[in-house]
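Weekly structure sync - notes
Attendees: PM, LS, DV (DV joined late)
Agenda: review two folding runs queued last week.

Item 1: First target. Sequence and structure tokens pasted below for the record.
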Amino acid sequence: MNNKIGTQPYKGARDFYPEEMRIRNYIFDTWRNVSRMYGYEEYDFPIIEPFEIFAAKTGAEIVNEQLFTFEDKAGRKLAVRPELTPGTVRMLAGRVNSLQKPARWFMIGNNWRFEKPQKGRGREFYQLEVNMFGEESVNADFEIFTVIVGIMRAFGADESMFKLYYSDRKLIKALLQEYLELDEEKAVGARRMMDKRPKISKEEFYSELVKLDLTTEQIDKIEAFMNSSIDTLNEVIPQEILDNNRGYADISKLTDLLNKSGLIKYCEFEPAIIRGFDYSDGLVYEVFDLNPDNNRSMFGGERFDRLIEIFDAKDLPATGFAMGDMTLKEFLVNWNLLPEFNSESKVYLTLVDEGMEVEVYQLGEKLRAAGINVTISTSADKLGKQFAYADKKGIRYALIYGSQEIANGQITLKDLETGEQRELNIDELIEQLK
């Protein structure tokens, strides 16, 4: 029997070696910096939640097929979170009466879904979630759009690289239930097929809707809606229905704000944006990579004003998005937007002579006290070998500090990129390296 333990992580999960950790830290640091720049505060909560939190509103596909569930020793059914929003709303419900509104929150958290690992998707992934709570007006959604654009621009992306497409569930409800007069069951089925429409043929789309007992005329109107623009919606849905629809009013105002601010170059109204979460109840949006080799949805968000009801709390206006690290990394790689990562150490302190470890350590501590990151050699190998190690680690500067340098009160600073060497005292060295 072969009982050898493998070295690979669980399927769909990832190890982060130092070179991968640098990329992850870069993504997380950028997320945090931009979120704070817009006035959002960081929070966190456990990765394990009661199963019913997700069963209530997350969506049938995730709950039935992708959720990692188990029972604890007391027999309680628990789940490893597949997304951040329900847990966030659970936290809010606990303080909803004392919450200073609008509240601006952001979180970076780890999620798990049992799905087939593929390019840009795994069973384990991190997300940034940014939400505003307590503001009903579309001004909150507009601010969320500015945060999204701000994050993408912070990574070096411009309008040729991504597009934020948006629509509104209330508008879709007006089409399906007010105009086409579908009952709730048919409307839910039709909406799910509309969400899949960009990925399937017209023939398959029609075939699936016929199975829901929709007429050809109704299906034609749904297809026409999905091909409409903000200016042609009234050619599909009667104007009197639109005039009394909150979704249409919000979309119109949001589009006006985007036009006047200049952000419209990053955004576009797209009726085919549906979102698969059952708690989406207003504005919905997704950000697409425009790279022809990776033209796909990267992340999205929505209004979820009524999700808090599952905790027996009154409605709380809520809007926000969740951005995954894996799809974002693919985007950054495909557009060549990742910076060059070097060692976090500024300088490599060589060990010239055996027996001088303490003197070298003391010099290293002086540099660290001055805020300079230092890696110290642990072996008195030939200097060429020590320089080669430092260079391979991406450390630009090396220090030579042997008995001769100590006697002269000097330290030799070597630039491994240019080969230039200088002799400096400790104060000059610190000034040079800072």
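Item 2: Second target, run right after the first with the same settings.
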Amino acid sequence: MRDESEYVKRFVQNHDHHLEACPYSSVMTGSVPLNWPTHPIKRWAADGVNFSISRDDPTCFDNSLCSELELVNSRIGLSVHQLWQCQLNGARAAFCDDELKKNIVDQILKSEPSN
């Protein structure tokens, strides 16, 4: 979802859909230009879009979730608290039973970083 797609962004926000963002893959596959400070993730975080950071094609890109989070923090500019919020969003959107989801969400909530 690129920034120019305001309709899609509003639809996602208004219907509380969850998006997974794979920043390295999005650039390497050409779906987003190689300009980290203007990556759509930055705008999504500012606009309160429900998304999480994930990874894609680890065998092709030799990446991990940790490397994606580091990239989003150091090159795109999201704060540690914004990264925490992204991962909380992901846990809340997870496809697992309610008890497991609650346990995961509770653990993430307990680890909220200070601003």
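Discussion on item 2: Helices lie at 6-14, 23-28, 40-47, 58-61, 65-76, 80-92, 98-110.
Action: LS to circulate a short write-up before next sync.
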